[in-house]
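Structure request: DUF2236 domain-containing protein, Streptomyces vinaceusdrappus.
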Amino acid sequence: MLTELRGYLGQSLFERVAGPDGAANRARIHDTPGPRWFGPDRPIRRVHGDASMFIGGIGALLLQSLHPLAMAAVAAHSGYRGDPWGRLQRTSTFLAVTTYGTAEDAQRAVDQVRAIHQRIRGRTAEGLTYHAADPHLLGWVHAAETDSFLRAHQRYGAHPLDAAGCDAYVADTARVAEALGVIDPPRDRRALSRRLSAYRPELRATAEAAAAARFLLLQPPIPLVARPFYAGLAANGVAVLPYWARSLLRLPRLPVVEDVAVRPAGRALTRVIRWAMSP
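Returned structure:
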């Protein structure tokens, strides 16, 4: 019975994250012979293969929403409300291909994303123009994602990285960022922290960012039976945000509650996900 439950949970989670083509994509990514961008010992493989990514992904979306131009592009073109699972599945497949796939497949995935970015242009409600291929905007999305994934892994990962491993993870992600068009991405934690600080004067919680936060935290498109499970992940996604990002989004910080309830729930949930999906 326990084995059946494990199989059901693992398959359900995999189908949600990877989509209907998940099994075929997994076989292609992992079984196709050829050189990879990252060898088996690279930290990016450890971080992106861990259950902490469920928490890091929520944190990354919240943090990324704070750049008005990036958020305007997401709101107008990503379809995150109309097809949230499709967007998640496309993103997870891209991460899997660039992290574990052959160098040829990884470059093909990057080329496809760059072609999409070239077509995405528009104006914010204030009349400011944006272009998804802008290296400056790409740099913000990359820095926010890298910081969130690393924070979540160090707090909830099965095997957190040491200091050198954290720097190496940032360097690994820079390889993908450069391929996507980011100019001089940070290559260690200190540079990543400086890069995030450099963006802070540009950041604010627009109406679109607030709507995205409500959607992610209060109106997720998931069955009622799974809401408590998701609420625990979402609360921990908030908890990994930098303090200044939580302040901008008006997400309260309750240290006692987080220490006593939120973080233990995050550790328990990631253990369950890891147990269910490891086969």
